[in-house]
């Protein structure tokens, strides 16, 4: 029976080793020898921390000591501490994982009187779980990121900008934070672009406009596609004056030069409307409606220009 147990421990595809109270190795199975490069005959009787100086001695000895003192099992998983031994894992697809991920169990080995004479340790290779989990996490991250993006231009989509607008308003109402502004803009005579150059060239114009706008924005600004050829910008901590400056810069960037497409060079301009948050514009709908009124004013008084919302101007329109 004993030799059968020896056989299993030796052949198991799990690391097994046993430490005495001085952390000297009393058993070292084939898995440990294979992965560490230290043969059983060289390991036996040697202090573990001399064989593997890279081990986290303070942490590991505390763990082993607790098993001697408390006489209970202890565990550690790769999620808490990715590895103790720097073992290669030989997986072709690593997901950025360097060394073999390891789960450990620390078990008290008692004598007939119930005293703990040694601690048996098992090491399970958890690299596959770690790789799958890392891949899953990055896939989920990409999925979430994509679900916030507009497929054509890569800027945020309406669902996302709506949510960010609500967040901004809540932030102001809760913390009396500095007001933000919203800029809505819409490309001029875009129907004509599609009709003249085709829908694919129209798509290329939308992508290029998005690129031009992104270049002039600051990091906290939120830029999204609001609908067909209409875009929205949320400018945190930006008053009416600042928002007008940004909007003017965007207008100039869009109109700077025609867009080069396979169908020819296409002149492009946009009309913009700006609204700054105020207590009277206390909902996402109210503030975007105000920006939309200003945009309407830009459209109907010549296009390729910026209008800042004011109740007087809205009343005139
Ligand atoms: N290529 C392309 N065209 C789009 C897309 N979304 C909306 N459009 C087009 O954008 C055009 C918008 O036209 P209108 O709303 O009449 O406005 P406009 O021609 O831009 O005129 P003004 O806004 O008054 O300057 C329509 O022809 C839509 O088909 C898109 O994703 N790609």
TrEMBL record:
Class of this enzyme: transferase
Residue ranges annotated for the GGDEF domain, each copy included: 178-311
Species this chain originates from? Chitiniphilus purpureus
Q: What is the lineage of its organism?
A: Bacteria, Pseudomonadati, Pseudomonadota, Betaproteobacteria, Neisseriales
CDD domains noted in UniProt: GGDEF, PAS
Chemical reaction(s) catalysed? 2 GTP = 3',3'-c-di-GMP + 2 diphosphate
Q: Which domain of life is it from?
A: Bacteria
Residues that span the membrane, as ranges: none
Report the EC code(s) recorded for this entry: 2.7.7.65
Task: Please give the name of this protein.
Answer: diguanylate cyclase
